[in-house]
Amino acid sequence: MAFASKTVLNAASGICRLSVRNTSSAPKVALLGASGGIGQPLGLLLKTNPKVASLALYDVANTAGVGADLSHIDTAAQVTSHTGPENLHAALEGADIVVIPAGVPRKPGMTRDDLFNVNAGIVRDLAEAAAKACPKAFVAIITNPVNSTVPIAAEVYKNNGVYDPKRIFGVTTLDVVRSQAFISELKKLDVSKTVIPVIGGHSGVTIIPLLSQVQPSAQFSDSEIEKLTARIQDAGTEVVKAKAGAGSATLSMAFAGARFVDALISGLQGKKNVQCSFVESDVVKGVDYFSTPLELGPNGVEKILGYGKLSSYEQSLVEAAVPELQKNIAKGVKFIKG
Ligand code: NAI
C-alpha cells in the first residue's frame, strides 16, 4: 500500500489540518452488508477505530446514505460507498480485511440453518468476488449459518486456487461476549477481566462454553453449569424472541464483530493476540472446521491453540456437537461442489 498524505477539514473547528499516515500498516476494511441491522452499527464502530485507514461500505441498497452519514464523523478512516454487484470489485480492491454481515436474519421460530437457502448464495457470490479482488485479505464471516457459510467461502476460494485456511474466519465472538456478560453477572466478577473460551460452532448445541476454564476461576454448581450453558447456547434466540419479528442480535453483534476485526488488525500489525473463531481445524477428529482459541498474527491464524482439558460435561457437549457440525459443514461444501 502507498504512503498517503491528505488534508482534512475539521468540521467542528473549521481548521484545516494536515494528516500524514503511513498506510502500510493501516488497513482497508471492506464491510459487505453495510446497510443492515449489524452493518450500520458495525460500520460506526469501525469508523471510530483509529487503526482503520479506509472503510469501504458495500450493500445492495442504501449504502450511499450510510456512507454519507459515517463520513461526517471526524475520525481518520476514509469512507467510501459502493452499491450493487457492479461496484463490488471497487469495494474489495486493496482490502486487507473483508467483513461479511450480508444476508437475512432469523425471525421467531427459525433456526440458523433455516437461513441457508438465502444466505448460502449471498456468501458464495461475495466470496467469489473477494477471492478475485483481494485473495490475501482476511475474511470474517458473520452471516448465518456460520457453520455452513465458512465452508462455502473456503470451497469458493479453493475453486479460485487462492484458499489459505489461515485467512477465513467464522465470527463466533458474540458467543464469547455473551458468556462473559452472563458469567460476570452471575458470579459478580469484574466483567472487563472475565475471560472464557467458547468452542465448537455457532448454533445451538454446537456452541460450547468452557465454564471449567473461566478466568478468574469461578466455582459453579452442576445446575448452574447446565443453566448457563443452555442460556449461552440459546442467547441468540432470546434476542430473536424479544425483537418479535424485527430481526436478531445487531448491536451486541456489531460490538462483537468490531472486537474481532480489531483483533485481526492487531495481528496484521504484528501484535499477536488470542481469539476464538470457527476455522478449518483438525482439533476434533472427523470435523473439518471448529472454533477454539487461536493465536492471530500477520498471517491470520498463527497457531490453533486447542481447547485444553475438558470436564466430563464439556466432553459430552463436544460429542453432542460433532454430528450437527458434520451435517452443517457437509451442507456448505455440497452447496459449492454439487
Ligand atoms: P439485516 O437484514 O438487517 O441486514 C442484512 C443486510 O445485508 C441488508 O442491508 C441487505 O441489503 C444486505 N444484503 C443482502 N443481500 C446482499 C448481497 N448480496 N450483498 C450485499 N449485501 C446484501 O440483517 P442483520 O440483522 O444485519 O443480520 C445479518 C446476518 O448476520 C444474518 O445472516 C444473521 O443471521 C447474522 N448474524 C450472525 C451472528 C453471529 O454471531 N455470527 C449474530 C447475529 C446475526
From TrEMBL:
Keyword hit for Flavoprotein: no
Catalysed reaction equations from the record: (S)-malate + NAD(+) = oxaloacetate + NADH + H(+)
Annotated keywords: NAD, Oxidoreductase, Tricarboxylic acid cycle
Enzyme class: oxidoreductase
Binding site for NAD(+): G33, A34, S35, G36, G37, I38, G39, D59, N119, I142, T143, N144, M253
Residue span(s) of domain Lactate/malate dehydrogenase N-terminal: 28-170
Subunit organization: Homodimer.
GO molecular function: L-malate dehydrogenase (NAD+) activity
All residue ranges annotated as the Lactate/malate dehydrogenase C-terminal domain in the record: 172-335
Name this protein carries in UniProt: Malate dehydrogenase
GO cellular component: mitochondrion
E.C. number(s) listed in UniProt: 1.1.1.37
The family this protein is said to belong to: Belongs to the LDH/MDH superfamily. MDH type 1 family.
